[in-house]
Structure formats: structure tokens, C-alpha cells
Amino acid sequence: MSASNVDLLTVGESMLRFSVPAGRLLADAPVFDVHVAGTESNVAVAVARMGFKSRWLSRLPDNVVGHRIADTIAGQGVDCSYVNWSDTERAGVYFIEFGASPRPTKVLYDRAPSAARTMDETTFDLSLVGNAKIIHLTGITVALSAGCTRLVETIVARANDLKIPIVFDVNYRALLWSYKECRSQLAPLLSKIDTLIVSKRDLEAIFEIAGDTATAAKGLHQLFGMPRIAITTGDAGAAGFENGASVVVPGYPVEMVDRIGAGDSFAAGVISGLLEENFVRGLQYGVAMSALQLTTEGDLFRLTRKDVLQLMASESIGQLIR
Asked: Would you call the peptide bond into 61 cis, given omega within 30 degrees of 0 as the criterion?
């Protein structure tokens, strides 16, 4: 049976996240909050919550942990029917200890070896690429293994052949590779994508491009030629560049509950705008979705398009709604 068409196709690893309750230390925490966590699945969920059809590819162990991950993501409206199941491997996990100034937040990964790290260009039926309007990929998947790198390269080549736009989020993780390794491995891919998402901090560190966002985006465009660039600027919001034109979308005042997943919500907003053929609108969605995500626990965006539009239209942020 042929696969149905979807708006978004993405691929990557998802794990279980064990969070130490606020104010406790990982060294002696008696309990943990458990969440399903993974950049690409986060994006797939958030795009689905915005009313689009999304499909997520990954490799998981065929056990209760793997099925908990897939069932959680599928429960948010994402097509997980093409997940590849392993009888012998495990799911990755990570632990997070939330900081409070001046103590930093700390992350401890336990993800190698995991089922997802064994993904390569033969794991999935990549004719699925042709059933999507947009492909979403990240630097995290490239960093996982040589096989995962080949998988991403093959998807990029397929999408290019079919003229399907690719949104690529650098999503740098210092625990996976160095800035130099990241730039070296991503550079050949970035000339083949349509939209790049990167934080201002990572842009400067990885690509050694300084200056304001307009200058940085111009430098990236000269290096790689992608037509659209979205640069997140923390509390300030985001900046976007399309066909030489620039736009700045300011951030919202936020009472932060959990910072994990905000960048993925931003990426989902950008993708939602692109699906509506409006990049600027996507930046606006992204900044609003990121702000909303910061106010909830866990990695998954569980709010609705109505919530996003309400925030974007609001002149009374944070007030009681009756």
C-alpha cells in the first residue's frame, strides 16, 4: 500500500528525558519527571498541533520503552507508522538538572549505542521523501553516526532531485561534536537546502561570522546560497532573511517553566509559515510558539493554533482570560 501524502517529513532520534524536579540535584534526586524528547519528533508534533500532517522516521527498540516513545508522539497526531523496530538495541535517555542562577542547567546523555544511531540510508523506504511537501533535518542526526550522516545526505539528494524544499536546523550540541567538526560536516549539505535555522550564538561560533543578524545572514548566504535564513536571538526574538530582504520579529516577555523544546517549537512555526507560503508569518508563528513552549513542562508542544494566534493578537499578555 502506498504511503499517504504529508505536509512534513522528518527523521531523527527520540529518547526518554528524566528531569530532576526544580531545586533538586541529579546526585540525590529521589524522583524524576519523565518525558519523551527528541528534536525532530518535537517539530513533527508542533507542526501537527498547528493543523498540518507530519510524519516522523526513526529507529526504536521493540520493547515497552520504544513503544512508549512512539505512542506518545503518535498520540499527538504524528504518523509514526514507518518507525523501524529493533529486537536487540536500546533507546537513548538523558538526564537534566535544572539550574538556578548562578548554577547552570546540566545535561547528561546516555544515548550511545542506541537503535537510532544505527540508522543509515538503507533503514527506510526513502520513496517516502516524495510524499512530503517539506523535509526537516537537523545537525543532531548528522552528528550521531556515519550511517546517520549518509541517511541525511541521501534524503537531501532525493529531495533536491524531486525539488522538495528542505528546512535544516543546525541545532548544535556541544556534547556530540565540536564547532569545527560541525562546520566541516554540515558545509557540503548547506548549499543544497532552502531554509536554514540557526541561533545567533551558534552562527558566530560555527561559521565565524560576526556582526548583526543582517550582516551574518548576508555572510551565510554568500557562503551557501540558501534563499531563506531564520536566526533566533534568544529573548529578543528572531530575524529572518528571504531573497535579500530582512525582517525582525520581537520576542515576548516570558515566565519560563522549562526551556527545553523552545527552539523546536520555533522551527515548527517557520515550517508552518512555509507551508502557508509565507516565511515572515512563519517567523511570527515560531517566536510565539517558542514563547508558549517555555511556559510548559516537557519537550512537546501541546498547545493549539488558536493559542498561537491568540498570543500573536494579544495586547494583554499574561492576563486572565474569562
From this structure: no
